[in-house]
């Protein structure tokens, strides 16, 4: 079992989209028993009195438009304990990477990565622009999908059965 935690600033746009896009790809490959996904925020901006806000409506709409299933998901804060609980901690932009490192007190096992570092043709700065500010949920979902496909292929090389030889129907 490989455990992946996707991380962004608010956990209402990019990282929950990544969580559900990855779950969809994992389901297409039939390797749900081998890959587990979750997501978390580096800030409390979308968490009020311990209750996180749901995924942003435009993020939900973009997943729906693509036929990607999602469940109720509320923003949750990244914690120090997450470092030991996950094998991969995948950030949407450099800022998340820096903030996560601060929350964890370092990255001794080199678990922290940028999602776009796995994409075949990544953007120059490896940052996925925040659609909360840009309003561009389509490009965001495209970049997330490219990163998740690359990450799955990297997992295949690490020996997750069926991924290495798998055929993604997308
Ligand atoms: P996310 O986007 O990090 O992709 O979830 C954001 C959502 C909310 C805020 C910032 C970024 N905010 O400041 O509330």
What distinguishing features does this structure have?
single chain, 170 residues, alpha/beta, two-stranded antiparallel ribbon, 6 helices, 6 strands, binds 4-nitrophenyl phosphate
Structural overview:
The structure is a single chain. The two termini are 24 Å apart. With 170 residues, the chain is of the alpha/beta class. Helices cover 38% and strands 15% of the residues. The longest helix has 21 residues. α1 crosses α6. A 4-stranded parallel sheet has the order 2-1-5-6, sandwiched between helices. Strands 3-4 form a two-stranded antiparallel sheet. 4-nitrophenyl phosphate (4NP) binds next to loops. 4-nitrophenyl phosphate binds next to loops.
Short description:
The protein is built from 6 helices and 6 strands; from the N terminus they run βαβββααβαβαα. The two termini are 24 Å apart.
SSE layout and pairing:
Layout: E1 2-8, H1 14-29, E2 35-41, E3 47-48, E4 51-52, H2 57-65, H3 82-85, E5 88-91, H4 94-104, E6 112-114, H5 131-134, H6 137-157
Parallel strand pairs: 1-2, 1-5, 5-6
Antiparallel strand pairs: 3-4
Helix pairs in contact: 1-6
The site of 4-nitrophenyl phosphate has 11 residues, from loops.
């Amino acid at each position: 079992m490989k455990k992946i935690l996707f991380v962004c600033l608010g956990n209402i746009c990019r990282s929950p989209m990544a969580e559900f896009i990855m779950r969809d790809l994992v389901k297409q490959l039939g390797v749900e028993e081998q890959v587990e996904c979750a997501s978390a925020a580096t800030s409390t901006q979308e968490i009020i009195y311990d209750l996180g806000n749901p995924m942003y409506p435009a993020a939900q709409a973009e997943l729906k438009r693509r036929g990607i299933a999602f469940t109720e998901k509320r923003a949750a804060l990244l914690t120090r304990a997450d470092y030991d609980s996950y094998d991969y901690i995948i950030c949407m932009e450099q800022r998340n990477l820096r903030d996560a490192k601060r929350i964890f007190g370092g990255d001794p096992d080199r678990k922290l990565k940028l999602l776009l570092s796995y994409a075949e043709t990544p953007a120059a700065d490896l940052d996925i622009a925040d659609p909360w500010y840009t309003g561009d949920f389509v490009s965001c979902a495209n970049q997330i999908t490219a990163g998740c496909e690359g990450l799955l292929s990297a997992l295949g090389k690490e020996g997750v059965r069926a991924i290495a030889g798998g055929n993604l129907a997308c």
